[in-house]
Each structure stands twice: as structure tokens, then as C-alpha cells.
Design goal:
The complex is a heterodimer of chains A (222) and B (286).
Chain A: E1 6-17, E2 20-31, E3 35-39, H1 46-54, E4 61-66, E5 69-70, E6 81-84, H2 96-104, H3 112-121, H4 137-149, E7 155-159, H5 167-182, E8 186-190, H6 194-200, E9 203-208, E10 211-216
Parallel strand pairs in A: 3-8, 3-9, 6-7, 7-8
Antiparallel strand pairs in A: 1-2, 1-4, 4-5, 9-10
Helix pairs in contact in A: 2-3, 2-4
Chain B: H1 2-19, H2 22-49, H3 58-63, H4 65-78, H5 90-96, H6 98-128, H7 139-148, H8 162-167, H9 170-198, H10 201-221, H11 253-275
The chains are: A alpha/beta (222), B mainly alpha (286).
Chain lengths: 222, 286
């Protein structure tokens, strides 16, 4: 592996679906305590890259390293990350709290107070009995952010985390992500919003037809 | 030890979610409707002769080939969402890892198969209320119907095979039915999970329906091809067909249990092997 503070390394990753190459020889390195942004049109391959890093998709070629562990050989899924990928989807008939509790207790004991705190942090009312099917898109997005951060993971993989949030929500979340970065978390995010990327990210990449180009930041700024 | 406990807890919580769901609710509604068609004439007969009926009717219902096919088709519907990769499960998988998630689904299939059988048995008793009795073994109504074979004349759409009444006590018949039905439903669930990973959801449904319909084929050509009984797991639910100790043409109970056990273990191994390499293609579906 490379440097000590490298937390994610994608090497020459390629992935095809039905003969169509969605990732084409993609390489990316992420260091701890930085925010990485990926921009690109719909269908350019951002989500497939994120899913591959998470372990939800298997690469046709290339390797993914998380620290010194190789995906598929040493780990079958990136379990040390908080993720939001695609439109946030939850158990529709459960309340926000019950959804978080269901997921949190997969690896932890019951901790109502902690989950209440997390929900308050993202601007949701933890005592609300409102079912997720009655949530607005913005509320579901906040809930998705809550589930991504509730286990205090060192890596966050966020696909369009600001989707559906109002102006105030976006501003709150930007501050929140800045705070997470200062705690040493590594954040990899995709966004259509140029301002989010400009304000938050240390390095910015563009995904175009499955090919990843660096467009700002890092040692070899273009 | 903690890993095992945590795995059991995860399976249990998945099972609770799967049991208290629209899918289960619609399935029970459908089953209630089918039960009503099958049980209403028996209920009327019990009322008219003023004798209560033994509520353990389920083994007799399963011995009717048409009920059996309807019941098992409902089971195929219940598992038709295999391989269970719905969009909301993504947040589970990234927490559990692939293998643990698959083990959770396998555990859920086993648990929900048995709970489904218990609910189905409970519903038969419920639909016969208040004309039921638990005091007299099989009771006069079922004895009379099995001895005289008058079900057809009374428009009762299923037979009361005398073999069941003569070979089993009520407790034995219900116990063996729970054991075998649970295993066969587990077999169908694991088959569908396995096939949906190895081939596709369509193939999983087609193959499961093939096994569901096989008892009908067996009924029609079983005399010519008696060996078919050994390859038709769904038929093994029928107490009237299946013999303790076995006969020349029927598989024995130990054969059925061993065969189902081995097949279910094989399916589980294939699922765990395959889950390591598949892409998790989540579908937006409740």
C-alpha cells in the first residue's frame, strides 16, 4: 500500500454492465481528514464507483484498498463507512427513530439517547411518530445523513447528500461536514451543486463516461 | 459467542419485519378466503349435526391436492421477492457484510416458514369456531366422514383420509405436519433465494412453481412412475401419501427429513458462496 494516511485507494477499476463500460480504468486515492468531491452528469459512473468502494458491486478489473485491507480478499463489504447512495430509502412504515434504531442495533446495543442526539444534530424531531412514508424528501435526506453518521465511522461516502434540502438545511449540513472533516473523517461526496463542491472539497474530480479526471486540488493540480 | 448471538438477533429482527408486513397480511387474507371456501361446508355440517369438530383440520386440507397447490403457490408468492435486495436493505448490508446478511436471510426463511405453518394451523381452528372440541381426539364428525367417505355428498371439497385418522393421533398428525411443512416451505424459500442469485428471479419463480405443481403430475402418472414420489418434496407434506417407515412406493419419513435437510444445507452453502461475488442490485419495491 501507499502512504500511511491513505485511507481509500482505487487502482485501475473497471466495471461493465451488459457490455457497457461504466467505470473505465479509474484510480483514486483518498487521505484521512479530507473531503473529496466528484462531479459528473447523471449516468457518468459516480454511483457505480461509490457502490464499488462500498463493496456492493464487484469490479471486473482493478483493486480497491481500504487502509491495508483489500476489498474482496480481506473484507467483503466496507463496513467502516457511513454511506448515502442514491435516493434515501427506509422502512416506510417505521418512524425515523425506529429506522435508525433498527440499523444501529445491527452492530451495537440499544442507545436511545445517542440516536436522539444524532437526530437532533441533523434537525429531525426524535420523538416524532411520523412514519417515513410521510416524510418530505428533505426529511428523508436528513434521516439518511443521520444513519450515515450515527456510528461515528472514519469514512463517509455521500452521494448527493444535499438533495432535497432547503437553503438553511444545505448551510447547516455544510457546517456539519466541515466539523466532521476537522475530526479527521474522510468524506467522499458526489454532488450536482458546484457550490457545495467548491466550498467543501479539498480535491475535486470529474467523472465523464466512466473516466475520472482530477480538476482541482492535490499535488498535481490541473 | 457474541457473533452468534448478534447473528441470531439480526435474523430475529429481520423475521419480525418480514412477518409484520403487507406481504404477509395479503397472503393471510388470500389464505383466509381459500380456507373459507374449503371449510364453510364442514362448518355447516358440524352445525347441522350439532357435533363439534376437531380443529386440527390442516393435515386433511394439505392432503387435498388442489389445496396443497394453492397453499404452496401462496408460499411462492411470499418468497417471490428473493433475493430480498430492496433499496432499504442497502443500509443493512453495509453494516452486516455480505455473508452475515445472507445468513440473516436464511435464518429468516427458516423462522418464517415455521411461523407461517403455525399461523395456517391456527387459522383453520379460528375459522371453525365455535364448533370445535379438543376433548375427543379426532371427534365423531371426522371419524364419520373418514369411515363413510361422504365428504362429496356434503359438498366438502376435501377428503378426510382414513389413513391419517388410523395412523396418527391428533398430536402426532399436527406435529408431523408442522415439521414437514416447515421443512418443505424452507426448501422452497431457500430454492428461490439460491436460484435468484445463481440465475434470476424469473427462474427462481419458475423452478419453485415446477416443484409446487409436481404433486399434481405425480398424482396423474405416479402409478406408472412410482419413483417420482422420491423427487417431489412438496408431496411429502401430505400425511396420506407419506408413510412412517415407508412402503414400496412411498418414501419413509426419515428419507424425507434427511433429503430435505441435505438439500437445504446445500442451498445455504451455494447462497453463501454466491453472495460473496454478486452485485447488489437494489430494487425499489415494498
Amino acid at each position: 500500500m501507499g502512504k500511511d494516511n491513505e485511507i481509500i485507494r482505487v487502482e485501475n477499476a473497471s466495471k461493465s454492465f451488459n457490455g457497457h463500460k461504466v467505470l473505465n480504468n479509474v484510480s483514486l486515492t483518498c487521505e484521512a481528514g479530507k473531503i473529496y468531491g466528484i462531479v459528473g452528469y447523471n449516468g457518468s459512473g459516480k454511483t457505480v464507483l461509490f457502490k464499488s468502494i462500498c463493496g456492493l458491486y464487484r469490479l471486473d478489473e482493478g483493486e480497491i484498498w481500504i487502509g491495508d485491507k483489500k476489498m474482496k480478499r480481506d473484507m467483503d463489504m466496507l463496513t467502516e463507512a457511513g454511506i448515502i447512495i442514491e435516493e434515501p430509502s427506509f422502512l416506510r412504515n417505521y418512524s425515523g427513530f425506529r429506522n435508525l434504531d433498527f440499523l444501529y442495533r445491527i452492530r451495537n446495543g440499544k442507545d436511545k439517547e445517542h440516536l436522539y442526539d444524532v437526530m437532533r444534530k441533523v434537525g429531525l424531531d426524535p420523538s416524532s411518530k411520523k412514519r417515513v412514508c410521510n416524510y418530505s424528501l428533505g426529511m428523508r435526506q436528513r434521516l439518511a445523513i443521520a444513519q450515515a453518521i450515527m456510528e461515528d465511522q472514519p469514512i463517509l461516502i455521500l452521494d448527493e447528500p444535499m438533495n432535497g434540502l432547503d437553503k438553511r438545511g444545505v448551510s447547516e449540513m455544510r457546517q456539519f461536514f466541515e466539523g466532521l472533516k476537522s475530526q479527521g473523517k474522510t468524506i467522499l461526496m458526489a454532488s450536482h451543486n458546484k457550490e457545495d463542491i467548491d466550498v467543501l472539497c479539498d480535491q475535486v474530480y470529474e467523472m465523464d463516461n466512466g473516466v475520472l479526471h482530477k480538476i482541482r486540488g492535490g499535488e498535481h493540480e490541473e | 459467542m457474541n457473533e452468534v448471538r448478534s447473528q441470531i438477533k439480526f435474523s430475529w429482527r429481520l423475521f419480525i419485519h418480514r412477518t409484520i408486513s403487507m406481504r404477509m397480511f395479503s397472503l393471510l387474507l388470500l389464505l383466509g378466503f381459500v380456507y373459507h371456501i374449503f371449510l364453510a361446508p364442514l362448518n355447516s355440517f358440524a352445525k347441522s349435526v350439532q357435533y363439534p369438530v376437531c380443529p386440527c383440520i390442516f393435515p386433511f386440507l394439505l392432503s387435498d391436492i388442489y389445496f396443497l397447490v394453492l397453499f404452496m403457490a401462496a408460499v411462492v408468492y411470499y418468497y417471490s421477492d428473493a433475493p430480498f435486495m430492496k433499496s432499504w436493505t442497502m443500509y443493512q448490508v453495509v453494516r452486516t457484510g455480505r455473508v452475515r446478511w445472507a445468513l440473516g436471510q436464511i435464518g429468516t426463511i427458516v423462522l418464517s416458514s415455521y411461523i407461517f405453518v403455525l399461523i395456517a394451523i391456527g387459522m383453520t381452528g379460528g375459522l371453525l369456531l365455535p364448533n370445535i372440541t379438543l376433548d375427543e381426539g379426532w371427534g365423531k364428525v371426522l371419524y364419520t366422514l373418514s369411515m363413510t367417505g361422504t365428504s362429496d355428498g356434503l359438498d366438502i371439497p376435501f377428503g378426510i383420509p382414513y389413513e391419517i385418522i388410523s395412523q396418527y393421533t391428533v398430536g402426532e398428525a399436527v406435529g408431523v405436519t408442522i415439521l414437514m411443512s416447515g421443512m418443505v416451505i424452507t426448501f422452497i424459500g431457500l430454492l428461490m433465494f439460491c436460484m435468484s442469485l445463481v440465475a434470476s428471479r424469473l427462474w427462481a419463480n419458475v423452478l419453485a412453481m415446477f416443484f409446487v405443481i409436481l404433486p399434481m403430475v405425480q398424482k396423474n402418472i405416479g402409478m406408472a412412475v412410482p419413483q417420482l414420489a422420491y423427487f417431489s418434496p412438496v408431496s411429502w407434506i401430505r400425511l396420506s401419501e407419506f408413510k412412517i417407515g415407508g412402503t414400496g412406493t412411498s418414501p419413509s419419513m426419515s428419507y424425507c427429513i434427511a433429503a430435505l435437510g441435505i438439500i437445504c444445507i446445500l442451498f445455504s452453502l451455494v447462497i453463501i458462496w454466491k453472495i460473496r461475488t454478486v452485485d447488489f442490485q437494489m430494487v425499489k419495491e415494498d
